[in-house]
């Protein structure tokens, strides 16, 4: 029997739709396309509750990436393209390659929309890394190395992100990646065959196909089991960032050619379904069918079986649907002008098939049809979401506080311990491996503020801010509240630099959807995302669902709704950072987003930092530490009435007096609470160096 992740009822439904038993290739094709990873069959019904429209939305969910209006410059309307994905299973099994290919895939999702990629971000969740020599620590190290190696090699800055360490991720890490790009509205490229494209050639571009990544879609839709180690590793792709670098530059040239000639085309990244999945989706989404000759695919080795040619998830590949008159020029750009075959063995652009009027998906191999199915049946599996009455009761806890319990007599001792813990310490040893300023458009590099900021349009003051949030401590306690906090914290982070939030993305990481408890956690998280985003008037334009993040015994990860927020600044000169600026200024706390944005525009805010569940004290000390990093010797005196507060919001350093004052900036580097005091430099050293051993 062929080893696939399809359920028995799904196999029967496939046979009924075909009127016969599926061929070997067809079975693997349906296994990929009907997987949770590709089809969202168990989540789609609930995801419809998320808000996806708004005045800034140029393109909502449904294609490779979402698009948000940025602003106008020199008479052109510009937009931000953003995509958000997970690469959890591959990164747990083969951490370096799994994380690296996660970056490559998300970058191509943005690239294929016609955009110039200007940044990436990541959200990482690792297990207990305290003990040297464990696989958990290796995962935490190699994932960061993989992200760094790929992102640096393709010349895209890593702008933002976060990382948490929690025993709930001991056997299942999370690697979520976000990519952003810039496109003129009139130059957006879509991922569906456009009207009138019957007969158009399908052009495969990129690396030669090999056996790596075969079964990647179903692998990501199954529980990881150590007994399947060899097969799991075989399902992980092999990255080639240097080929990706050339592929990106060549694709920019192809898009420029299409725009020069006024040609509408389609482009799509090859995802977990390989050539089959990409060609089927690009044609089905336009209302067409497809015919593909597997013998035309450029390969890295001879005699690959047809199912690998069809479904293998070899990286660094895309498919275009192009009008015949431009195909020769596109092939020349890739194969001759940018010399893909000389960059990697047998990499190239090649015609592999055609868009067809009949809505069939046909694959041929050695002159014989090895697959012939209705294309809509292939690409649109039946939704399998559980209804609430079937879910039972998920574990709920009414509080999700992660704040430090501070000793009233000596609160700074407990605070120092928090800031030097894996939960509270600086992530700089991790992200210092990333190139955060390559391309020269970074305004605020990663780690210097709550959000990363870039100015992607040459000569324009328009800026884009991006931030990520999602705390697993909250997910353990209450999945709905955790999702709500993720939205609010991501929004606050972009507001803290002075940016107006315009849109959101999400990646929902949960256990087995056939478990009533785990599925209920997912549904609760969607509820939290939906009503919080609506309250804030923000749409979700891109996202991902990752199920089966659990071990073979059924223990799932903490419920993890991870959210990214995109913000816009009209003038990057007005950016605010968290570092304290001036002795004698006041510190004040607020939760009001509009108040913060207004104060920043008025110029009365000298510094701003988001207050998370660790409380106001922790935020204030982090602002003092940021000042140390910037070369200033400043401290803070804080009111002792802030003990045991975990209220989220903003801590502002203001040049104006105010009634909400909670502290004062001092001209010497000490932290004072009541009668207790502590050296900022001492706390900074403990905060900054905690991860040095792991990321030496």
Structural commentary:
The protein is of the alpha+beta class and 696 residues long. The chain folds into three domains: 1-34 and 190-381, Alpha-Beta Complex (Phosphoribosyl-aminoimidazole Synthetase, Chain A, domain 2); 36-188 and 426-575, 60s Ribosomal Protein L30, Chain: A; 577-696, Phosphoribosyl-aminoimidazole Synthetase, Chain A, domain 2. Helix content is 34%, strand content 24%. A seven-stranded mixed beta sheet has the order 8-10-7-11-9-12-13. Strands 21-23-20-24-22-25-26 form a seven-stranded mixed beta sheet, sandwiched between helices. Strand 15 (452-454) and strand 16 (463-469) form a beta hairpin. Helix 20 runs parallel beside helix 21. The longest helix has 21 residues, at 516-536. The chain is globular. Mean pLDDT is 92; it is low at 393-404.
């Amino acid at each position: 029997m062929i080893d696939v992740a399809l359920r028995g009822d799904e196999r029967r439904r496939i046979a009924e739709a075909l009127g016969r038993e599926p061929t070997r290739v067809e079975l693997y094709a349906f296994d990929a396309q009907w997987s949770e990873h590709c089809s969202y069959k168990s989540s789609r019904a609930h995801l419809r509750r998320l808000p996806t429209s708004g005045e800034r939305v140029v393109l909502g969910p449904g294609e490779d990436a979402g698009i948000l209006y940025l602003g106008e410059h020199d008479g052109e309307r510009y937009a931000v393209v953003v995509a958000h994905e997970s690469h959890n299973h591959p990164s747990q099994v083969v951490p370096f390659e799994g994380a690296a290919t996660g970056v490559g895939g998300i970058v191509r999702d943005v690239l294929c929309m016609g955009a110039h990629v200007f940044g990436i971000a990541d959200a990482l969740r690792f297990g207990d890394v305290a003990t040297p020599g464990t696989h958990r620590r290796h995962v935490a190290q190699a994932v960061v190395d993989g992200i760094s190696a790929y992102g640096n090699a393709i010349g895209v800055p890593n702008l933002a992100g976060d990382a948490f360490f929690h025993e709930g991720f001991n056997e299942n890490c999370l690697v979520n990646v976000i990519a952003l790009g810039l496109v003129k509205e009139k130059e957006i490229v879509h991922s569906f065959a456009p009207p009138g494209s019957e007969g158009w050639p399908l052009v495969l571009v990129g690396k030669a196909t090999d056996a790596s990544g075969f079964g990647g879609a179903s692998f990501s839709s199954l529980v990881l089991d150590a007994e399947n180690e060899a097969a799991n590793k075989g399902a992980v792709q092999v990255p080639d960032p240097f080929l990706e670098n050339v592929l990106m530059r060549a694709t920019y040239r192809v898009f420029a050619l299409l725009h020069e000639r006024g040609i509408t085309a389609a482009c799509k990244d090859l995802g977990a379904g390989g050539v089959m999945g990409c060609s089927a989706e690009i044609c089905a989404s336009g209302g067409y069918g497809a015919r593909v000759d597997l013998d035309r695919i450029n390969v890295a080795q001879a005699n690959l079986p047809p199912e690998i040619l069809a479904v293998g998830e070899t990286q660094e590949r895309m498919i275009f649907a192009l009008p015949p008159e431009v195909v020769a020029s596109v092939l020349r750009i890739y194969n001759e002008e940018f010399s893909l075959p000389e960059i990697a063995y047998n990499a190239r652009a090649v015609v592999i098939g055609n868009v067809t009027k009949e809505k069939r998906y046909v694959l041929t191999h050695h002159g014989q049809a090895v697959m012939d199915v209705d294309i809509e049946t292939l690409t649109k599996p039946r939704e399998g979401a559980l209804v609430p009455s079937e879910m039972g009761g998920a574990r709920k806890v009414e509080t999700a506080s992660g704040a430090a319990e501070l000793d009233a007599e000596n609160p700074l001792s407990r605070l120092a311990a928090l800031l030097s813990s894996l939960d509270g310490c600086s992530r700089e040893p991790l992200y210092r491996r990333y190139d955060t300023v390559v391309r020269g458009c970074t305004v605020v590099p990663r780690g210097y503020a709550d959000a990363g900021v870039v100015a992607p349009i040459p000569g324009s003051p328009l800026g884009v801010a991006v931030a990520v949030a999602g705390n697993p401590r909250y997910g353990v306690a209450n999945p709905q509240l955790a999702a709500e906090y993720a939205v609010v914290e991501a929004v606050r982070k972009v507001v803290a630099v002075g940016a107006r939030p315009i849109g959101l993305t999400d990646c929902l990481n949960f256990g087995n959807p056939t478990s009533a408890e785990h599925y209920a956690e997912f549904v609760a998280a969607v509820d939290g995302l939906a009503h919080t985003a609506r309250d804030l008037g923000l749409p979700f334009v891109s996202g991902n669902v990752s199920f089966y993040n659990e071990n073979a015994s059924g223990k799932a990860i903490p419920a993890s709704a991870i959210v990214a927020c995109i913000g816009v600044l009209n003038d990057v000169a007005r950016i605010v950072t968290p570092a304290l600026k001036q002795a004698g200024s006041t510190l004040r706390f607020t939760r009001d987003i509009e108040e913060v944005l207004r104060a920043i525009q008025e110029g009365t805010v000298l510094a701003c930092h988001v207050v998370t569940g660790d409380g106001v004290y922790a935020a204030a000390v982090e602002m003092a530490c940021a000042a140390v990093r910037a070369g200033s010797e400043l401290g803070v005196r804080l009111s002792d009435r802030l003990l045991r507060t975990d209220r989220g919001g903003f801590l502002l350093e203001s040049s104006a007096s105010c009634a909400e004052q909670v502290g004062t900036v001092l001209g010497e580097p000490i932290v004072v609470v009541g009668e207790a005091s502590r050296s900022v430099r001492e706390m900074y050293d403990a905060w900054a160096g905690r991860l040095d051993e792991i990321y030496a």
